[in-house]
Design goal:
The protein is α+β, with helices and mostly antiparallel strands and 77 residues long. The chain is built from 1 helix and 5 strands. It is globular and about 35 Å long. The two termini are 15 Å apart.
Amino acid sequence: MCLAIPARVTTIGPHNMAEVDIMGVTRNVSLDLVPEAESGDYVLVHAGFAIQVVDEEYANETLELFKQLDIVEPEDV
């Protein structure tokens, strides 16, 4: 099963690479598939790529569901 995790874009660097925050964990992901994403936006991340821009409410609801279902822990992202 594949899973995309909501993340908040913190900074955008060269070559469409962004630093994102996923439940307090920082990762670098590509924004090539969502060039409209800006710092502060929430995106769905799968396999190192942001694949969709989502609103903050959706991102927070999804992360809360993951926590409730024990699908993901911060150290897993």
